[in-house]
Write a structure and sequence with these properties.
Helices cover 71% and strands 0% of the residues. The longest helix has 17 residues, at 96-112. It contains 12 helices and no strands.
């Protein structure tokens, strides 16, 4: 949560007065007029939107819409980086080769994991509360649930995230066929 608040603070610090005015206008249906009058910074606005459940670490759609409407592509890029890597800045990332290996591993795991996904999610350290949030956001899409679990793990791991660790955790769960499939796919990448 701290990283998300840090991202919101970065975004707020990058807003000029015209941006803030436009954001407040766009939030007119979601925030009462009297509250809007008391908002004097992006941080105040984001705090209000969080209290109302419009934005959260797991729900950035409304924030993305707002930044798109005020045409702040630079801030959208920060949001993209946060969603993909867990922070607004790309400082704690695996190298490009490992990112490619992780993406391949994610695809194979999403395609092959199946109903054992919750056991695997717990093994890689994803909390039950986070699992419930993922299921609520994607109730009928197991593949997307698995992908969100993997993205959550990657955010926590930062530059320590690697495909070999995922394979090891799959084996710890006795999901050897999935682990073998990931390993085989990664080997074909090297050739």
């Amino acid at each position: 949560m701290g990283e998300f608040l840090g991202l919101l603070y970065q975004i707020s610090g990058s807003l000029d007065s015209e941006n803030l005015k436009n954001l407040k206008f766009l939030c007119g249906d979601d925030i009462r007029k009297k509250e809007l009058e008391n908002i004097s910074s992006g941080t105040d606005l984001f705090k209000n939107l969080m209290e109302k459940g419009k934005i959260s670490i797991d729900n950035t759609d409304f924030l993305r819409l707002l930044l798109t409407k005020i045409k702040r592509e630079d801030l959208l890029e920060k949001l993209d980086n946060f969603e993909k890597y867990g922070s607004g800045e790309q400082v704690d990332l695996p190298d490009a080769e490992e990112i490619e290996r992780l993406e391949t591993a994610f695809e194979v795991i999403c395609d092959n994991l199946g109903k054992q996904w919750k056991m695997f999610a717990r093994k890689i350290g994803v909390s039950d509360a986070r699992l419930d949030q993922i299921q609520d956001r994607h109730p009928c899409d197991m593949r997307e649930q698995i992908r969100q679990v993997l993205k959550t793990w990657q955010k926590v791991q930062g530059n320590d995230a690697n495909a070999a660790e995922l394979i090891r955790k799959l084996r710890d769960c006795r999901l050897n066929l999935v682990a073998d499939t990931v390993d085989e796919q990664l080997r074909t990448m090297q050739n």
